[in-house]
Amino acid sequence: MASNAVPLKAVCTRDLYRGFAGRSVLSGIDINIAPGEFVALLGRSGSGKSTLLKALASLDHGVAGSGALHVPDNLSVVFQDARLLPWRNVLQNVTLGLTGADAAGRVILAEVGLQGRESAWPVELSGGEQQRVALARSLVREPELLLADEPFGALDALTRIRMHALLRELCVRRRPSVLLVTHDVDEAITLADRVLVLEDGRLIEDLTIDLGPERDHGTPRFGEIRRHLLARLGVGFH
Ligand SMILES: Nc1ncnc2c1ncn2[C@@H]1O[C@H](COP(=O)(O)OP(=O)(O)O)[C@@H](O)[C@H]1O
Ligand SMILES: [Mg+2]
């Protein structure tokens, strides 16, 4: 279908570059993310994933490039560790820096399954519960863009699977654009509309995941996509 309309973009970078001491870590990065789109960024350790995420989060003032770097003002970041303030309770951590947000904080805490834990201290929570608080803290701000850097990397496998279901559910309900950095191929295929692969600071793959909302790891198509992405990451099967 032909259309002259320019699609709205939540994220747009053109020819993004980042080097450290003359060594190129990211180069020629062009990314578009549509409003409400869920994109996963895969890459081996050291490929530049966190550097790219920090650039998009405007946490890095050293990025350069000939083109644009456009991100919404209203964005939130989630890291691998929950980074909760130990002297604030759960609800206070979620609403940190906001005023009049207690009601919204309670709603989102219920959505992440922590109803009744509002007064708990971070030290009283498991790792998975702490990450749910961190997600709630990000989403209560109703970000247009959620940037997540291996947010489930420190969790055990079962908790991670539960967090995947939770994140999908929250994204369907709240529709932020998402860039999820991960090195877990199955996590990327399970969650994302589209998967990018970064290798030595360059994007080498941009794959739309043509699976329905129910993503059964056991289907042949899931297996095909997994093999393809693993091959792009340099992991072959013999
Ligand atoms: N502040 C920095 N100073 C120098 N080198 C850095 C800095 N941050 C990242 N790097 C280098 O950039 C490369 C990519 O790092 P990073 O983005 O953290 O990779 P990833 O998240 O994919 O594991 C690595 O070689 C790393 O050493
Ligand atoms: Mg990293």
Describe what you observe in this structure.
The protein is 31% helix and 25% strand. It has helices at residues 49-56, 90-94, 102-111, 127-139, 157-174, 185-191, 220-232, and strands spanning 11-20, 23-33, 38-43, 64-65, 69-70, 75-78, 145-149, 177-182, 194-199, 202-208. Helix 3 (102-111) crosses helix 4 (127-139). It has seven helices and ten strands. The protein is an alpha/beta fold and 238 residues long. Strand 7, helix 5 (157-174) and strand 8 form a beta-alpha-beta unit. The protein has a domain at 8-73 and 179-232: P-loop containing nucleotide triphosphate hydrolases (Rossmann fold). The longest helix is centred in the last third of the chain and has 18 residues, at 157-174. The protein has a six-stranded mixed beta sheet with strand order 6-7-8-3-9-10, with helices on both faces. Strands 1, 2, 4 and 5 form a four-stranded antiparallel beta sheet that branches. Bound molecules: adenosine-5'-diphosphate and magnesium ion. Adenosine-5'-diphosphate binds next to helix 1.
